[in-house]
Amino acid sequence: MLNHSSLRERKKAKVRDSLIQVSMKLFIEKGFEETTVDEIAEAAEVSRRSFFRYFPSKDLVVFPHQEIYLEYFRRLLAENRGQETAMDAIRRATMTMAEQYHAAREDHLIQQRIIQKSPTLIARGDKMDEDWEAIIAAELITRGGDSGMTDRRARFLAGAIMGLFKVILREWYQSDCRSDLKRMGEEAMSIMEFGMRGDEPQPPAAVPRAAETAGARGRAGKRKR
């Protein structure tokens, strides 16, 4: 039996993808501010009204997967509650998101080049960062409620973590997304956890060999006698 609902969804997804691709191409060629919705609609062979059915405003087409990423990050953070600390959850979720970003690095690089040339998009991106920050703060409160995690403390910590994320992404974009984003994230998270104390995470101490241990005990025994 023909699934009309599925066909409609596929058609909508195809139109949406077309609008994204056409928009990005025009933004690269002409600039975000200089490109009109009418030009995008004409190039994608849809009406202006159809464009706004998919994207309420022109700037949102530059961030087409924002809601999907946010929901995915929220679900990652919620996993393993009661089995790991809040920071461990944030580290795990961040590393998973880094893998997702790295897999789509070409799209992210194009997106970033468009954003950096537009004050409107920079402002929109900063506003969207607040959504990520709010998700982190909410998870900190959920996991740390019994240990005295206040709303204010959670907001401060979430802001610091978001600042870290922005530095990581800035360095990644400066490398044209060639650097290993996951490795950068792991390094940055370690620096954040240990750097405030002025030290670095140290590898486990080597286990003494049996002969050396026995020798040390023997020398200690002689000194006692």
Question: Can you describe this structure?
Answer:
With 225 residues, this protein is mainly α. The protein has 2 domains: 12-60, Homeodomain-like (Arc Repressor Mutant, subunit A, Orthogonal Bundle); 63-197, Tetracycline Repressor, domain 2. The chain has 10 helices and no strands. It has helices at residues 4-30, 37-44, 48-54, 66-78, 86-103, 105-115, 119-144, 151-174, 181-195, 210-224. Helix 4 runs antiparallel to helix 5 and helix 4 runs parallel beside helix 7 (119-144). The termini are far apart. The model is unreliable at 203-217 (pLDDT under 50).
Topology (SSEs and partners):
Blueprint: H1 4-30, H2 37-44, H3 48-54, H4 66-78, H5 86-103, H6 105-115, H7 119-144, H8 151-174, H9 181-195, H10 210-224
Helix pairs in contact: 1-2, 4-5, 4-7, 5-9, 7-8, 8-9
Number of domains: 2
Class per helix and strand makeup: mainly alpha
Beta-strand proportion: under 5%
Number of helices: 10
- SSE string: HHHHHHHHHH
CATH superfamily of the largest domain: Tetracycline Repressor, domain 2
DSSP strand tally:
0
Keywords:
225 residues, mainly alpha, Arc Repressor Mutant, subunit A, Tetracycline Repressor, domain 2, 73% helix, globular
Tell me briefly what this model is.
The chain is mainly alpha-helical and 225 residues long. The chain has helices at residues 4-30, 37-44, 48-54, 66-78, 86-103, 105-115, 119-144, 151-174, 181-195, 210-224. Helix 1 crosses helix 2 (37-44) and helix 7 (119-144) crosses helix 8 (151-174).
